[in-house]
Amino acid sequence: xxxxxxxxxxxxxxxxxxxxxxxxxxxxxxxxxxxxxxxxxxxxxxxxxxxxxxxxxxxxxxxxxxxxxxx
Length: 71
Known about the structure:
0% strand, mainly alpha, 434 Repressor (Amino-terminal Domain)
């Protein structure tokens, strides 16, 4: 699963893969794999990334803000 929003939000905030990886105590390679769809993060990692970037898990995966069908 390619995480379309992860790369977008990282670049929007002007952060390098290395900076994010160091802040979150993970390898830069892992972050790169998540961004490129070579590996999928587990739920815990998704939540950590979501909190770090202050975006929803939905945004990290799709690159789109969540809109409820039940407004």
